[in-house]
Every structure is written in C-alpha cells, then in structure tokens.
Amino acid sequence: MAQGVLGALIASVLTSAILTEVFHEGPLFLAGVLFVIVAATCSGFVLARLGVMPGTTALWGSSPGAATAMTLMSEAYGGDMRLVAFMQYARVLCVAISATVVARLWGHAANGAVTHGGAGSWRALIETVVVIAVGVAIARRLHRPAAQLMLPLILCVALQDTGMLVIALPSWLLIVAYTILGWGIGLRFTPAIVRHAAKSMPFVLLAIGCLMAVSGIMAAILVRWEHVTPLTAFLATSPGGEDTVAIIAASCPDVNMSFVMAMQTVRFVLVLFTGPGLARLFARWLA
C-alpha cells in the first residue's frame, strides 16, 4: 500500500500543465532532459564496469529520478535496493547542498511552499485511497515487477486528467507511507552492505560530482539559448531531488517554477518508464 501512495504522489504532479510547458519550450528543453539522463546512464555504466557497484545496481543508483521510486523499482529488475538507496540519497544530499548554495548566491529568498497533492476534503482523500487500494490489489494479482507502484500511478494520472479524481495526500499519510518504505529498505542493510557502501563512497561521490558538472554544462546552454535565469537552469537540470529542488525554487521569486518542475518531472517520467528496458540492456552488456 505504501508503494501505491508513492505512485499517487508522483501522479499528483503529472498534470496536463506539464505537457503544455514541454510543447511550449521546444526541442532544446527535451535535449536538456535527455542530456542528463544519458550522462547518468554513462556514469552508471562506468561504475559497473569498474566493479564499484554490481550489475544493474549502478544504473538504478545513478538514475536521476525520484530516489524512493528508483530504489523500489531496482529490486524488481535485479538491482540491490540497499546500495541503490545509498547512491540515490547520497546524490540527493549533494544536490540539495549545492542547490541551496547556488540559490543563496544567485537568488533572493521569498516565502513559498510546495506541496504534492492537496490535503483536500475527506471525500477526496477517501477516493484517492480507494483508487490506490484498487491499483495495489490488481497489481498483486498481476505479479509484475514494480506493479504496486506503477499501476496506482497510472490509474491516478488517468482519473486526475479526466477530472474524475482530485488526488488528496495529507502530510500524515505521506509520513506513514515513507516511514514504512524507509523501514522496509533500512532493515535490509547488513554489515557487509554497509562496508561495501563505505568502500565505494569516494567513487560514488566522484560520479555524482561529474554528473552535476555535466548538468551544469547543460544549464549554461539553457541560459544561453532558452534565455532563462542561471538559477532556473541550474535547478531544472539538477540530477535528482525533485522535492528539494521544488522547495528551493519556490523560495526564489526570480525562478521560472513551471520550467524547473516541467524539466524535473519529464526527466523523472522518462527514467521511470525507460529504466526497466535500460536495466535489461545493462544486464546483457555486463554479462
């Protein structure tokens, strides 16, 4: 059920406004999205080739999508979710720190808040929970990888965009869901996994630094050709940590919030749906 809540959370930001922004911005926008994905994939491939991380774990750990979603999906496609979680949240931390520093240097703080889904009415909450429960129940019968995440996501997106559902996810529900997911991942860590993570830390941090540098290059290109502010471009191309980026973007009035969230969301969706195929391709390359 917790995975279903995460799916609904992701669905809450996949609105028609995102598609409108994508079509409005044009090819360079999509190039920026793909540029970061390709760079992350190459980073994962190098880590796997060097033996820093095993097999597809390197790919899922390097994927610039939502950290929790990537961690959960990795197990279904042959990755070690414990090491993926380590890689994902190490990158989120690095991105959060760098984005905060850059925002202080280039931006001007303002009061702002970002929420995923509304607290909404009790009716909206009940409807959301029912859709999630139905999606999870069907997913359990399908026995497909990551179905408990993906099916509620697809159902919520479809119903939301047709106006049949207002996704309501109050903070207490998200806290419960993330706590359950966190326990599920954290309790699987063993001393051997912790030692492996510690040993690989320098290589992982180097890979994160390279990915952030590549993202910075893409940000510079966007500043030059899309005529967005440097802070907008930097936040839009930051590899992961969408929630953190959204909060920072909302606190800076000179940031184009729709541009930032559109690029972050589109990149995440592409990673979400191409990840399984890339994982299988990775497995063949590394065999």
From TrEMBL:
Quote the cellular component terms of the Gene Ontology held in the record. membrane
Q: Which UniProt keywords apply?
A: Membrane, Transmembrane, Transmembrane helix
Pfam families tied to this protein:
AbrB (PF05145)
Q: Does the keyword Transmembrane apply?
A: yes
Q: Is the ATP-binding keyword given for this protein?
A: no
Spans traversing the lipid bilayer: 29-48, 89-107, 119-139, 175-194, 203-225, 265-283
Q: Name one GO biological process term.
A: regulation of gene expression
Q: Which PANTHER family match?
A: REGULATOR ABRB-RELATED
Spell out the protein name for this chain.
Answer: Membrane protein
Could you tell me which species this protein originates from? Tanticharoenia sakaeratensis NBRC 103193
